[in-house]
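Q: My labmate handed me this sequence with no annotations at all. I'd like to see what the chain might look like in three dimensions before we decide whether it's worth expressing. Could you predict it?
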Amino acid sequence: MPWLDAALPVRMTRVALVAPAESLREMLAAVAGAAAVEIDAADVGQEAEAARRLSRARSAGAAVKREGEVGGAAAAAVKREGEVGGGAALCAMAPDLDELERAGRYDLLAGEAQLQGYAARAMRGSGCAVLAGWMPAARRAELSRLLAGVGCGVVPLPRPRAVEAPTLLDGSARRRSLSGLVSTYGTVPYADVNPAWLAWGSYVLMFGMMFGDVGHGLIVVAAAAALRAGWPQPLRRLRAAWPFVGGAGVMAVVFGVLYGEFFGPTGLIPAFWLVPLDQPLLLLAVAVGVGAALLAGAYALGTVNRFREGGWRLAAYAPSGIAGTLLFSAAGLVAAGWYFHDGAALVAGAAVAVAALALALAGFLAEAGGGGTGVFQAGAELFDFVVRLASNVVSFARLAAFGLTHAALGLLVWEGTLALWHRGGVMIVAALALFAVGNAVAFALEGLVAAVQALRLEYYELFSRVFVTQGRPFRPWYLRVEPAGSAVPGRDGLNGKGGG
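A: Here is what I predict for the chain of 500 residues:
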């Protein structure tokens, strides 16, 4: 299914990089420039030793000084390993290390330190050197062609059972702009579905429900347009957040139309649905209903992720899998049966609840390991499982609570403005000032509160069901490779022919 493939992390493959021993440096230089492979971590001590060998000096005093400088640059390069745009660089051909030191090219020395660290890590035998790592499956053919030019190759390896592949999400600009909410929570595990689109949609929906005002929403939309255009300059680093800001503004406008709010209850637009302060209980019921729908989606996605992580067994017993989904469904059936006075729905809900609790208890017992202590632990976890489900649903009542707070602040400012306006004279100026300042305060205060509360609901109520583990990001080894002839002439620093 193409839509599902687009929501999954990029498919990774385990590979071995194979080179004749004398061509190891050429292969590593090609791999570093391609930024396609996360080589199994090299030993930092080996890299430090390589840096010390690179920082040889003729005199003891100069040696100490240069060793500290080069060693520090190599250590910094190791920390930046895999990050595009790091300070370290690499010569395409093996350089003369003494010349690099004399020229002050510590960026190239740091790159050589990294390269020699990986070279020391390579397994050797029968005249060959081998390194293992991870890379995107779609780039293996491309890297194979590149390495074939230096007499080396890429060999696919079976994936180790106990090792999870690193995660690389779709790199398109559109997806990157929507992944910020998920990435700040943690790295998506390699087996899981990336809920970037769903996270964006639920966040802006919740924000708009708490911040429903057409005037305030249009200001937020204008702020999103400014961010997208890269203005103001000091906030340019936040440009990637513009889809969240823009979506939140649009939803604030939508709910402002539904509430009849335009910089408060000014009467400039009619309420197309309800006036929050006139019908708070209805708003509260709708907020809980919205929360229930979002939780249902989180449980569904959590079940898919548990299946992808551990098959049907994990999906069935997990509180965020089938067991949790069944208990949540049972609560819905019981609520519907009570509201509509339907005995069949009540009985069905009770039966589903029993099945859900049995599945969850079996999973807790298996995890606890049995015995009296295990039974006690499983019982406590089962109780917590039920209580958390109820509290999670009720937690979405804050969507109505903060929506009511926003409406109350708007009403307070508007009534104060009208009271001053009707006095006439200089009080008209005071009324305008109160309207402007009051709306500014309400906008800043309620905008911050709505943003934080929507984030809190996203993380604690939704993401806690979608994810139960953290992945690790894919960090390919990358160094800027300077072409032959652009640096000092080289000597072979790996094979013992020169200054390595």
